[in-house]
Each structure stands twice: as structure tokens, then as C-alpha cells.
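In this section we walk through a basic example: taking a raw amino acid sequence and producing a predicted 3D structure, encoded as C-alpha cells. The instruction is simple. Fold the sequence below.
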Amino acid sequence: MTSALRSFLKYARYRGEVALDLAAAVPAVACWSMPSIPRAIAADQVRQLLASIDRRTAIGRRDYAILLLLARLGLRSSEVAFVELDDFDWNTGTLSVRGKSGQRNEFPLPLEVGKAIAAYLRNGRPLSTSRRVFLRAKAPIRGFRGASGVGSVVRHALQRARIDAPTYGAHQFRHGLATEMLRQGASLGEIGDVLGHRHPQTTKIYTKVDLEALSTLALPWPGGVQ
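The resulting C-alpha cell sequence is shown next.
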């Protein structure tokens, strides 16, 4: 709207309808950096969701391992979908993940996550020549085509558990992990390393979720507390 108004006023001056440069008086619209707040699933909701998974079934063991990778390592849904058997080094307890930029990031594999993945591989994963870790439960038996497969697992799990999460997407687990780390005293640099951020600016958005720390910076409200 402001660009259109400036163009009109410049044209009016060109035509001689106005003598002053009124286009220069049109104010700029504020464009705030990182205006939104990350929509993070709460830690108690994560615990409730994990407890709701029926790990007596093959699908349950698969879904439980997927949700743990999202919640404990903060992986993106695409990273979980494309993780392969060769990405695990069971001797050193590490997982190598190809990130958005194509670079490999190595994560320490928590005992809880490793046990869940091993349980799925031993007693849940269908026989297949695919090197993907997580496979579809229905024919054709193959790996997920992309992030949407993992997103579907998350959505259905939240719906079955009747959890009123901020969204039905997988990215909220990534936000949830960063938020919990910040509350426990982790630095932005440490959070960025865990999430695989290449630029510190990307991690700064999580400073908005620490409301207790931000409240110390707030100025007194004129006229008293509201």
C-alpha cells in the first residue's frame, strides 16, 4: 500500500498536480525481525504422548522411536524420514544425520533413543532390502517418501492421545527441545549446535520463549500494574 501511494504521489508531481514531494512524507512500515514466537510442545505433553504409544505392536515400536528422535535430538521430520541403517555407529553410540545444507551432523545417541531404535529393528521393522531405518507398515514396504510420512505419524499419535498441542506438526518437538534447554541454562550456542544451526541468528528466536528472563527487562507500566 505504501509503495503504491508513493508511486501515485510521484506521478501526481510529475503531472504537475502537486508541487511538493509528498511521496517523501509517506512513512515506512515497520518490519520487525523474527516477529513470531516458536510454537513449542510442552515437556509434560511430550511425556504424555510417549506414554500413550503401544509399544507391544510393530507400528507402536516404530512410532515410539520416531517420536524420541524428534523430541530428544530435535531432528527435522525430513532427517528422521531419510535416516539409514549405516548412519548409526553402535560402537561409539552416535548418529550421523544429513542436514538441510547437505552437511553431516553427528549426534550422541541417548540410551533411551538407542534402545527404542534397537527394539524396532529387532522386533518391528519388516523384512526389506531398503537401507532406510523407518519403513511403511503397509505395502509397498519401503521408506517414507519424505517429511510428510513422519508428519503423519506425529499427527495421528497426538490425535489418539488427545493432546492439545500447539500444532499437529513435527517441528514443535524441535522448538520444545530448544525451549527446555534454554530453561535449564543452556546457551544459545549450545542450542544451535544441537539443532544444527549454521548461523547464530537462527537460534536467537528462542530468546523470546524465556518469559521469566524477559520479565526482568520489562519497564514499569504507567499508572501501576495491569
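Looking at the output, two observations stand out. Strands lie at 88-89, 94-98, 104-108. The chain has a mean pLDDT of 85. In the next section we compare this with other chains.
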